Here is the input.
Amino acid sequence: MKRRELVVAQLLDAAPDLISLQEVYRPIGQAAWLKNQINGRLGTTAAGRPYQIVQKRRHHYWKGYFDGLAILSRLPILSHDAISLGYQGRVALRANIELPTRETLDFVAVHLHHRARDREARVEQVMRLTGWLNEQNPVPLRIIAGDFNEVPQGAAVQQMKQGYRSTFEELWGHEPAATFPTALAEREDDWAGCLDYIFISPAVEKVLKVQIFCKKPAADDPNLYPSDHVGLLVTLETG
Here is the structure.
């Protein structure tokens, strides 16, 4: 209960135009609840545009009941589709967004296979994802955001960088030291690393700002964070 209030508060503070969400819990309508809470509170400010939502569950006979991906957008959503990435029903969700310039942009939410030893699986997923984006209704402007479950030196991330730029690396010259875990995650070891990225296509003109966000614990509990991962918040110039 307290954790979801932290998520709402910190997203509300940032109020980005586009939000990529992974592991949304479907039985309680978590993504829709989040959208409604943010919209309700934005309605009392001068912020204006409400969020729309698109979602996609996992392609798995029982995991798909429990979780999936979601995209929240304050910009018009013209269409959306998804692709199966295999490995316990992983998917990528794409929303085609209309920008204020009337150009369109593909915004993609993704969550790759999680087992550290299965690096070849993530490379396969990246190749399937990028091939799909290049072949099915391609547009020049693309953002791919999510949990890649791979460190910066990993083959899947290096494969992504063959055709896309990492926003954090472009601005800072390196990836974040770590995006996982926060104190919310219970681990038997002290491992920490960067697993989360926002990639952009070459046509996106400039990265103006990148920062870590959703990183504040509860005021009365230093171990209570919005998530077991921190997020990335990016400001872009599209052209």
